[in-house]
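Summary of Year 1 activities. Much of the first year was spent building the evaluation harness for sequence design. The harness presents a backbone, in tokenized form, and records the residue chosen at every position. We chose the following record to illustrate the format because it has been used consistently in internal testing since the harness was completed.
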């Protein structure tokens, strides 16, 4: 009986070891199928720099204090600094992290992203996609833009890589010192070269002179005085000053002159202090 028992025990040990080996193999195969784990870097370098030139002039450059080479086309960067050169104008972009796609020449920046132009525009967000070859940048995240002490915020941005023109998609707010607030549902288009902005959908302008609301408003800015010089409102225009209300299809407001020109079925409603509204 002893040989049989020994043989049986050996068979059990063999089956147990074989089973463990199979389980380990399955687990290894599962690990290899994990796309996140497959994306691990194959090479790490402490500094990284790449640039593109055209017509003997630099078009853009990207630097990182540390880089993980994920594959020949994808590079993960830490402490990123990028610069784009458009018509002798340089725009600097910095972020905590970035992923550079060498095939697309496209950079996706993440966390504490700041873009700065030579003329003092600052754009801040948490995620920003930047393609210098196509001359565009974009994000779906919350964006803050400061130019000439005018603060603009909103969600979803597309624009030129030199930030000469940008568009915000929704939930727009513009603060103009000292006391003007402009809001709209969006979109908002700003041309910083021409100092003009186009606001759409439920636009409202509030300042110490009163309130203006309309479907669409075109606003002109004075870059030297950091204020609004003129606003052209159209579509269901309503102006409220003190207790008085004005309605029209179009209104042109000259800020310095404190003058409003109404066109398109203008109507003025004047309330005295004794009047009651229903």
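For this record, the design step produced the sequence shown next.
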């Amino acid at each position: 009986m002893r040989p049989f028992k020994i043989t049986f025990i050996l068979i059990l040990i063999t089956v147990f070891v074989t089973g463990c080996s199979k389980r380990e193999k399955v687990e290894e195969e599962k690990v290899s199928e994990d796309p996140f784990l497959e994306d691990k870097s194959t090479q790490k370098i402490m500094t990284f720099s790449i640039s593109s030139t055209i017509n003997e002039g630099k078009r853009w450059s990207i630097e990182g204090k540390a880089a993980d080479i994920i594959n020949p086309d994808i590079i993960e960067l830490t402490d990123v600094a990028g610069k784009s050169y458009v018509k002798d104008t340089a725009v600097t972009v910095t972020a905590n992290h970035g992923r550079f796609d060498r095939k697309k020449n496209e950079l996706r920046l993440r966390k504490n992203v700041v873009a700065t132009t030579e003329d003092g525009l600052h754009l801040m967000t948490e995620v920003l996609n930047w393609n210098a070859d196509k001359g565009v940048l974009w994000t779906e995240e919350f964006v803050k833009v400061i130019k000439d002490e005018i603060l603009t915020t909103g969600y979803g941005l597309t624009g030129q890589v030199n930030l000469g023109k940008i568009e915000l998609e929704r939930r727009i707010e513009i603060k103009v010192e000292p006391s003007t607030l402009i809001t709209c549902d969006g979109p908002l288009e700003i041309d910083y070269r021409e100092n003009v902005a186009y606001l759409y959908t439920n636009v409202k302008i509030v300042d110490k002179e009163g309130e203006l609301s309309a479907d669409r408003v075109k606003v002109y800015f004075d870059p030297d005085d950091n204020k609004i010089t003129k606003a052209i409102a159209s579509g269901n225009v309503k102006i409220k000053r003190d207790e008085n209300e004005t309605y029209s299809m179009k209104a042109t407001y000259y800020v310095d002159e404190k003058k409003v020109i109404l066109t398109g079925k203008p109507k003025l409603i004047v309330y005295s202090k004794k009047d009651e509204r229903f």
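Residues 1-38 have pLDDT under 50 and may be disordered. Quantitative recovery figures across the full test set are reported in Table 2.
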